[in-house]
Structures are given as structure tokens and as C-alpha cells.
Amino acid sequence: MTAPIFKQSLIGAVILVSLAFGAWYFMAPPDAEQAQLPGRIEGTTMFPSEVIPAFQICAESTTTQGVEYCVDTLEYASDLRFSIPVPAGTYYVYATLRDAGSIGSDLGGYKAYYTQAVVCGLAYGCTDHTKLEVVVGSEETVTGVLPHDWYIR
Q1: Residue 149 DSSP class
Q2: Residue 21 and residue 14: Cα distance in Å, rounded?
């Protein structure tokens, strides 16, 4: 009768160790990669013209020079919405033309930022072209970002 008791004790010990490991595994703090789950920046683009060009919309880091996350839109797209996956952080968002020459525009290289003038309505008298910081948390989606200020220099 000692064999069945030993077998039951061994099975019980394996179950106990498995439960303890499972509890530790699921309670362990996330590693750095998991803590930086991507967020998103969403909004719409516009262009002061009858033609809807192809854009590249970018979120540039305010803390790390040269770090940008970009998405492209299609020329003549009827949907001007964009969604940029980004790590948690603070960004300036801008739109630029992918091929200004294809629509006869001289705005190649210009960047239309999300600025105070956009919030003001881009109306006469909206002269503050200060870029607005977009703060994104881990797994957060920030909506309503409008890189429309083609008048910033």
C-alpha cells in the first residue's frame, strides 16, 4: 500500500509546484518590452486644393531627435483619416506631400503640423503656429489630431 500513497504524494507535489509556478508567472512584473505596448495617434489630413494628394503623416519624438513614426496615404483617397502606431511618448505630428510635383504644387518639403492655429480654426487672426505636443500612453489612442497648418514656416 505504500506505492499508491507515494504515487498520490508525488502527483500532489507536482500539482502544487505547477500551481506555485503558475501563480508566480502570472504575478511577475511585465518586462520592459511589455510595458511599452504601442499606443496610437489618430486624426485626419487636409490640403488647401481641389486635388487630394498622397501624404506621409509622421509623429516625431519631442525627446529623441531624429525618431519618427510615419504612415502613408493614397493619392485621391476619399478617406483622409490616419492611424500611426507609436510607443508611449510625446510627439509633434505633421503631414507632408509624398510627391508635390504630381499635383503641380510648390509645397514639396513643407510640413503641415498640428498647431495652436489649427485649434484656433485656421481663421484670420490665428497667428500662433506653436506646435502642439501629443502625449501618448502605453496602449492609449489619442484621437482628433489634425496636422492641417500648411502655413507654418
Answers
A1: B
A2: 11
Query: Using an 8 Å Cβ cutoff, are 30 and 139 in contact?
Result: no
How does pLDDT run across 99-118, given as a tens digit for each residue?
Answer: 765 555 555 678 999 999 99
Model pTM? 0.72
Give the span between the Cα atoms of 80 and 75, in whole angstroms: 10
Task: Give the E-state strand segments of 3-131 in sequence order.
Answer: 39-44, 55-61, 68-72, 81-86, 89-97, 112-113
Residues 6+ apart with CB under 8 A from 97: 47, 53, 54, 55, 56, 103, 105, 107, 108, 110
pLDDT tens digits along 34-54: 345 689 999 998 877 777 788
* Distance, CA of 126 to CA of 133 (rounded, Å): 18
Which string of DSSP letters, residue by residue, matches 9-35?
A: HHHHHHHHHHHHHHHHHHHSPPPHHHH
